[in-house]
């Protein structure tokens, strides 16, 4: 294509494609584009040189800046995952993830929104700690969501007392429910504390000399259910019983309360006689934490009227 | 200069609101003319950032500055972005709003960088249309900021300042004149930065940015992690001479020192502003670009 024929759209597509192309191991721009063309040629099609820099070198500045920015953002959102898989491996993982899932949002806040699913499907990027890394990714992404997801008006104890089996409820968007394979909540919190100690006034410092994964005590695989949620602007983690987790998931999926409780106690070892007490205790806690709200403003009224 | 692009505000000298300074601000309540916030940090639904912003709004004037509107991108802006931005505008009552004269997204994929535009007539037209549309939607004055750049395009048909002037004229918007960005781009593209400052329509300058940068062997990078250097102060002095007292903001985004150090650096601008007070600006004398 000749230089003169490149319009604004073509220039932007060509530049975006070059800028988002992964760097070499030495953090240089690659010599060839994915279609095999020499990048010196690609750059010269739309970038002008100056007396010190070739078109390739000028484009390379933006290529590096892009990767430094997005890799830094992911490292900031997933410090515990980074510590557990090791800094180098985390960077390789991030590059592969971002190549498949570049940012589709105006805000970097959403950059890691697909990392859990991606990492589950790509175990080779996390090595022998894959299952733990997936759990920790779940926890750290839940933190991002619990931190600033919306909060609706919660149901009061009086409103909760009016609920029946047909009531449809909603869980606060900031409550993030997780089913884990390890006590990854404890590991994550302990690594976050370590990060905080290393933090400078200007933000989180990553010691890039520490490429190796962090040492961990031997962890036993066991099913665990955790909710990340926000109270007074801070994010907390709360462990749940399996039945409580399943009930909350069912409520969130839109089941009426009776069906949600049935789903929660399916295959449960809790005897039938003990279940009403459990449900009562859950609702007490949920009311205290403001976890339960209505799916839409009119629904509770309908439920109360019904 | 107080003008319709900054809602005739005489804001003085502000600094960027940054997390490492929150504790100092809330505990000491320092006297600061105004804070500039990065809009995207607060375009969220709930949580601590908005609660913090509300506390700041109780005591300080706030002006919004965006980093991802990408006026020059060929693909249409995300309606969700615009909606959230307008919600924030209503929350802050920002008298004007700024974002960059650049592009950064294609087909909904974001680079999160402020990429330079080719200075072509096609880019002038598309960018001005976008600025006008955003300004109409937000219902407040919009100022576009000149960016630092490291690459120039073979397709360019005019200088950067000619491009800026064409866009703001057609969009009928304001300018956030970043004199550090002018210096950085001038060094990277080998032009005279003072020629740029002298060519800007002074009556459209709503706000001025000052900042530090990092010098590398073959280029300068706009890093906002150093004090302002003397040649940039000289550009600032000339800008103030031309525009009159204009809301000024120091950007410091990396290796952020103490609040007092950042504020002291920003307040150096006051000596130029004081000097210009009482003296008619070039723009006021002629009512037109100099």
Given helix and strand content, the structural type of chain A is mainly alpha
Overall number of domains of chain B: 1
* Helix amount of chain B: 40-55%
Number of separate domains of chain A: 3
Most extensive interface between two protein chains, with residue counts: A-B, 54 and 51 residues
What oligomeric state do these chains adopt?
heterodimer
Descriptive key words:
heterodimer; A: 306 residues; mainly alpha; 3 domains; two-stranded antiparallel ribbon; B: 290 residues; alpha/beta; TIM Barrel; eight-stranded parallel barrel; two-stranded antiparallel sheet; 11 helices; globular
Structural summary, described in words:
The complex is a heterodimer of chains A (306) and B (290). Chain A has 306 residues and is mainly α. Chain A contains 13 helices and six strands. In chain A, helix 4 (79-85) packs across helix 5 (87-100). Chain A is elongated and about 80 Å long. Chain B has an eight-stranded parallel β-barrel, surrounded by four helices. Chain B has a two-stranded antiparallel sheet with strand order 5-6. Chain B starts with 12 loop residues before the first strand and ends with a helix. Chain B has helices at 22-28, 48-59, 79-92, 121-138, 160-171, 179-189, 193-199, 230-243, 259-267, 269-276, 282-286, and strands at residues 13-16, 35-38, 62-65, 97-100, 103-106, 109-115, 142-145, 152-153, 174-178, 205-211, 214-215, 220-221, 248-251. Chain B has one domain (4-280): TIM Barrel. Chain B has 290 residues and is α/β, with parallel strands linked by helices. Chain B is globular. Classes of the chains: A mainly alpha (306), B alpha/beta (290). Strand 1 (47-48) of chain A pairs antiparallel with strand 8 (152-153) of chain B, so a sheet runs across the interface.
